[in-house]
Design a protein that fits this description.
The complex is a heterodimer of chains A (about 325) and B (about 575).
Chain A (H helix, E strand, L loop, with lengths): L1 H31 L6 H16 L11 H33 L10 H24 L13 H5 L3 E3 L5 E3 L2 H21 L1 H11 L1 H6 L4 H23 L9 H15 L5 H20 L7 H16 L7 H5 L3
Antiparallel strand pairs in A: 1-2
Helix pairs in contact in A: 1-6, 1-9, 1-10, 1-11, 2-3, 2-4, 2-9, 2-10, 3-4, 3-9, 6-7, 6-9, 7-9, 10-11, 10-12, 11-12
Chain B lengths: L2 H23 L7 H15 L5 H23 L4 H21 L10 E2 L5 E4 L4 E4 L2 H24 L1 H11 L1 H6 L4 H27 L1 E2 L6 H14 L5 H15 L2 H15 L50 E10 L2 E11 L4 E5 L6 H9 L6 E6 L2 E2 L5 H7 L1 E4 L11 H6 L6 H8 L4 H19 L3 H4 L14 H14 L4 E5 L10 H15 L3 E5 L3 H7 L2 E6 L2 E6 L1 H6 L1 H8 L2
Parallel strand pairs in B: 7-12, 7-13, 10-11, 11-12
Antiparallel strand pairs in B: 1-4, 2-3, 5-6, 5-8, 8-9, 13-14
Helix pairs in contact in B: 1-5, 1-8, 1-9, 1-10, 2-3, 2-4, 2-8, 3-8, 5-8, 9-10, 9-11, 10-11, 15-16, 16-18, 18-19
Classes of the chains: A mainly alpha (about 325), B alpha/beta (about 575).
């Protein structure tokens, strides 16, 4: 029972992060029909920028004071959102423009354009991170002090197993942000406009929706979510230049499992993927070697079999 | 530059040549060429203790190609975007997998090949050490061979077909190019060349680790290929530029900058020239006497494939075609006979199902129920490209052209060419010359039938790039292309779209359609322009709400009060 609970809790903690990133990725995929391949790098990129701006490049071991903590909490999502908008302006906009709004689903030139632009951006982010943090991995203290909320660094679960104390509050906070974002994207006027653009960009223009404003908003929102994911995961996983891209690929696995373009599907699949991954690692005959390989394998298989995701194709075209 | 460094670069070039075939020539965004390099390097190192080295290397290369050919069944169905994501995920999976499950001795993630590498064969009496001199010679030979074969392939029928696949799978299918097979083949060749590069890498260095063949290598190769451009020597330039960039910047930054540079070099979306928006004619017809064709002005009429043996039986017979979209019947029990040598026009108001009918006959859309026979052969679920080869070809309503192609090449794309003919050309077989002549004859015939012979002549005073021709001639070119498929049944969707009425354009089109029919082809014409229909059609069927409500000679049908009611609403 103890191991089971431990698996569940640590899996859900990872899953909620995947869900946050996948939510942004699936939003963009549904809107512009491009796959934001650099989306994961925004997580690490935003966190890295915030750490450099607030803490500097020397590792900090002690708990953070109120000022730096607040700084990280504000700057990380803001930096991710800014990076996301830059990616839109430099990479996605030119590619989509040249081939009409349906470019992403189509063939050849446009896809080559946005895919190459995105991986190039990711490379630059990784190169920047590697330069800013020359060590293999940089630990960042938890700005949210979630452990304090749980009443200790280590939480003893029923059955005897332990997990880091901050995990339960992290799950709760992550779920809160995810669900709030999902509801907001569905209910708000922006969400309505975004769904209109996703369904039919031409018709959306005809009823007076400013598509480029919706797209900038969507990229910013996806960036904010990526930044939030960074805040949640960075205390558990020391920052390396490749943290982001691997997280991004796992989030894509979740987005595809949930049906590309489906917000709710992405959230659910993200949680499931986290728990499944944690379960695979917990099986004694498999073990931690499978941590990265499992999710990447799932991604490759899903792309090969059902590139629009596991849910039916016409569901995948709609957002919710 | 040391000899060893040069050898390493030559092996990278080999991997880049393979990648360029996929990315530049076929338009497939492959972001994971590092994975095939890994297959070659790891495969060789792991097989070397069991087999003689050349065999181990060959097997590794072969396995990479075959694996992709098998995986390719999935990959060829993918959209370009999904292929990009899949190959990107694959290169990370390979690196993480090789790290997590070390294959090297003593649990090391790197694999080794004992140095110096010796080729020993007691039976042949060979015992040689692969000195750096030998290695650079081998690498150079591999690179030169790969470049030479690429150059040859691009100038031949295979290059044309790949260009068609790049321009658009839909277009390529209507021209009878088996898009899935070509994509699969190209991906397999790309993987095999990548693996060959990996073999060279491990033989040269003796040790290869997961990060040597990981995502960074994938992106560096992609960057080189993009910067190099589409010419056959592009990868050579690309690797040279990459080499220089790696001297001045760190590996990631260099690759990122080159990727960006590659995008700027090839403006996005500039790969496919669109036909112009149909509009009024702009240019006067070219002055001057038409020049005689290479065959002295006579049209050589080959009997089109699939033509009916006797004129009495229809070339194409459709019975009870029904297509249901959701709850709506787009076609509701259509019977249609197309006869060789006749133009059969299908008219009807917008939304009556004309284009649906054409797409069903061409195999672009499956019928819910009903049967289609070509000269007595049931077509069943035959895919579009296969139907073109069987003898049914369609020309879509929109003008689609291949960017930068001259008129003759634009038509030659459609001439029937199997993989074998492509390979004969590649290997310089003697029979390849006969193939080329047959293709040239098919192009000549198609151009002559559509009145474009003059445009097809090289180096004339008139522009020969298809994109530079007036709309009117682009429409004729589209007809010539579908005629060049050699199909016995041609399905034409509004060939007059964009051609101004009353002008020379309509007259040219009329005679082109008549000549196509007189050459023994059966022509189905979907058209709104009643003057064209009455001038050219032998038979007219009227389609209203998915049913044929009237059929007969143009004069009878157009005088039919029921038809007038359907068109004019009473």
């Amino acid at each position: 029972v103890g191991v089971l609970l431990q698996t569940l809790v640590s899996g859900a903690a990872a899953g909620v992060v995947y869900a946050l990133i996948a939510l942004g990725a699936t939003l963009l995929a549904g809107l512009v029909r491009v796959l934001p391949l650099a989306h994961g790098d925004l997580v690490a990129g935003g966190t890295g920028v915030a750490v450099v701006l607030v803490l500097g490049t020397t590792p900090v071991a002690a708990a953070l004071g109120l000022g730096p903590a607040l700084g990280l909490v504000v700057v990380t999502p803001a930096a991710s959102a800014a990076l996301s908008v830059v990616v839109y302006a430099l990479v996605v906009r030119p590619a989509v423009r040249s081939d009409g709004p349906d470019a992403g689903s189509g063939d050849g030139a446009a896809a080559l354009g946005w895919a190459v632009g995105a991986v190039a951006t990711g490379l630059l982010v990784r190169a920047g991170l590697a330069r800013a943090f020359p060590r293999d991995a940089t630990a960042v203290p938890d700005p949210l002090r979630l452990a304090a909320l749980a009443g200790g660094d280590v939480l003893r679960l029923p059955g005897g197993a332990t997990v880091p104390g901050r995990l339960l509050p992290a799950i709760a906070l992550g779920l809160l942000v995810t669900l709030a974002a999902e509801r907001l994207l569905v209910r708000s006027r922006f969400g309505l406009a975004a769904r209109a653009v996703s369904d039919d960009p031409v018709a959306a223009t005809l009823v007076g929706i400013d598509i480029s404003r919706v797209l900038v908003g969507a990229f910013a929102a996806a960036g904010l979510l990526a930044g939030a994911a960074g805040l949640l995961i960075v205390p558990d996983h020391p920052l390396t230049s490749e943290t982001g891209v691997l997280l991004g690929l796992k989030a894509f696995a979740a987005a595809l499992l949930g049906g590309l373009g489906s917000l709710r599907g992405a959230v659910l699949a993200g949680l499931l993927l986290g728990v499944a991954e944690s379960a695979v690692v917990a099986v004694p005959s498999l073990g931690p070697a499978y941590a990265q390989v499992f999710a990447l394998g799932v991604l490759v298989v899903v792309v090969a079999l059902r590139p629009t995701g596991l849910r039916s194709a016409d569901r995948a075209r709609t957002m919710v | 530059v040391s000899l060893i460094e040069l050898t390493a670069d030559l092996w990278l070039l080999v991997a880049a040549i393979g990648l360029a075939l996929a990315v530049q020539q076929t338009g497939l965004p492959v972001l994971g060429q590092g994975a095939s390099v890994a297959a070659g390097a790891y495969g060789t190192a792991l097989l070397a203790p069991l087999l003689p080295l050349p065999l181990a290397a060959a097997l590794a290369v072969l396995l990479a190609g075959v694996a992709v050919q098998l995986l390719g069944a999935a990959a060829t169905r993918l959209t370009a975007g999904a292929l990009a994501l899949g190959t990107w995920a694959l290169t990370w999976l390979v690196r993480e997998g090789l790290t997590a499950f070390p294959l090297g001795e003593g649990g090391a993630p790197e694999v080794l090949l004992p140095q110096p590498v010796r080729l020993v064969s007691p039976s042949l009496g060979v015992a040689a050490t692969l000195t750096p001199g030998w290695q650079v010679a081998l690498a150079a030979a591999a690179a030169v061979t790969a470049l030479g074969l690429t150059r040859r392939a691009l100038r031949g029928p295979l290059g044309l077909q790949l260009a068609a696949v790049r321009a658009g799978p839909a277009l390529a299918s209507t021209l009878g190019v088996d898009v899935a097979a070509r994509r699969r083949g190209v991906l397999a060749v790309a993987a095999a060349l990548g693996a060959l590069g990996g073999v060279g890498m491990i033989v040269l260095q003796g040790v290869v680790g997961p990060s040597d063949v990981g995502p960074l290598l994938s992106l560096q190769l992609l960057a080189a290929v993009l910067v190099g451009g589409r010419a056959w020597w592009g990868p050579l330039v690309g690797i040279a530029v990459l080499k220089v960039a790696l001297v001045v910047a760190d590996p990631s930054v260099a690759a990122a900058l080159l990727l960006a540079g590659g995008l700027l070099r090839e403006p996005i979306g500039g790969l496919l020239a669109r036909g112009r928006v149909p509009g009024p004619e702009e240019d006067p017809p070219p002055a001057g006497d038409p020049r005689p064709s290479r065959h002295g002005g006579s049209v050589r009429v080959d009997r089109p494939r699939g033509a009916a043996a006797a004129n009495a039986t229809p070339a194409l017979r459709a019975r009870g075609l029904r297509v249901v979209f959701g709850g709506l019947s787009a076609l509701d029990g259509v019977n249609l006979d197309l006869h060789a040598g006749q133009v059969h026009a299908v008219i009807g108001p917008n939304g009556s199902g004309k284009t649906t009918l054409l797409r069903v006959l061409a195999g672009a859309l499956p019928a819910t129920t009903g049967s289609i026979e070509l000269s007595g052969r049931v077509l069943g679920r035959l895919a579009e490209a296969d139907r073109v080869r069987a003898g049914v070809a369609r020309s879509p309503q929109r003008t689609l052209l291949l960017a930068g192609f001259g008129v003759r090449r634009e038509v030659e794309v459609a001439t029937p060419t199997g993989v074998l003919a492509g390979l004969r050309h590649l290997l310089g077989a003697r029979s390849a010359r006969a193939d080329a002549t047959a293709r040239a004859d098919a192009v000549d015939e198609a151009l002559q039938l559509t009145g474009l012979t003059e445009r097809g002549l090289q180096g004339g005073a008139v522009p020969v790039k298809s994109a530079a021709m007036p709309t009117r001639e682009q429409r004729l070119l589209q007809l010539a292309r579908v005629a060049a498929t050699g199909a016995a049944v041609l399905l034409l969707d509004e060939p007059a779209a964009g051609v101004a009425g009353g002008g020379a354009g309509l007259a040219e089109l009329t005679s082109a359609l008549r000549r196509l029919a007189e050459s023994g082809r059966a022509v189905l014409l979907i058209e709104h322009d009643m003057r064209l229909v009455s001038a050219v059609a032998d038979r007219v069927s009227v389609l209203v709400e998915g049913r044929i409500v009237a059929a007969g000679s143009p004069a009878d049908v157009l005088a039919d009060p029921a038809v007038r009611t359907a068109y004019l609403g009473g």
